[in-house]
Amino acid sequence: MLRQLRDQHGALMIHQSGGCCDGSSPMCYPDGDLILGDADVHLGDLRVEAEGEADGEGFVVPMWMSRAQFEYWRHTHLTVDLVPGRGAGFSLEAPEGVRFLLRSRLLSDEEDAALNPVGG
């Protein structure tokens, strides 16, 4: 889906706001369409491999989250999934009959210590 959306819209970004309703789902936008600020945290990048080419160039989709939501979820492992269903109205995948879904699990003590050092 990310390949298809990139072909249609160019570079992409995903943002998880932590709000209610549509804001509870990861939202996919053309990169730069959502203005980010100090209230947002860059979680990392979703790496999309080149399709059918072992040495082809893939691309990355930066993943952002509101700082308030990050503070609440900083001790969880997050997985972005794609599931059938009606997507959020402003998210690019909405017309495709699918939606992005964020799955989570608590980090193990070892994972948490590595990602959230004391004083860090």
From TrEMBL:
InterPro entries: DUF779
One Pfam family per UniProt: DUF779
Domain of life: Bacteria
Name the UniProt record assigns to this protein: DUF779 domain-containing protein
Source organism (scientific name): Actinotalea soli
